[in-house]
Amino acid sequence: MTTTQTNRDLEQIDHKTCRHICDAVGERLQQSMRPEPSLSSPLQQLMDELRRREDDRR
């Protein structure tokens, strides 16, 4: 697929339709993603340590 062909394909979807599609995808994602459960204290401490070590490497 060439850039010109891609641009023509994009032009066929108007802004309003594109917005509706994006909103629908966003709603589906919100419905399917569940909040992460709280970590136990020891596990949270290990995760914090892992983040600190990763930051130190950078």
Q: Mean pLDDT score, rounded?
A: 83
Overall 3D geometry?
elongated
Query: How many structural domains does the protein architecture include?
Result: 1
Residue share in helix: over 70%
pLDDT < 50 stretches: none
Query: What is the distance, rounded to the nearest whole angstrom, between the alpha carbons of the first and last residues?
Result: 39 Å
Assign the structural class, choosing from mainly alpha, mainly beta, alpha/beta, alpha+beta, or little secondary structure.
mainly alpha
One letter per element, helices H and strands E, the order comes to HHH
Radius of gyration: 21 Å
Protein name: Anti-sigma factor NepR domain-containing protein
Biased composition (Polar residues): 29-44
Biased composition (Basic and acidic residues): 48-58
Region (Disordered): 29-58
Explain the overall architecture.
Residues 29-58 are annotated as: Disordered. Residues 29-44 have a biased composition (Polar residues). This is Anti-sigma factor NepR domain-containing protein. It comes from Bradyrhizobium jicamae. Residues 48-58 have a biased composition (Basic and acidic residues). The model has no long low-confidence stretch (mean pLDDT 83). The protein has one domain. The protein is elongated and about 55 Å long. It is mainly alpha-helical. The chain contains 3 helices and no strands. It has helices spanning 3-11, 15-32, 41-57. The relative contact order is 0.06.
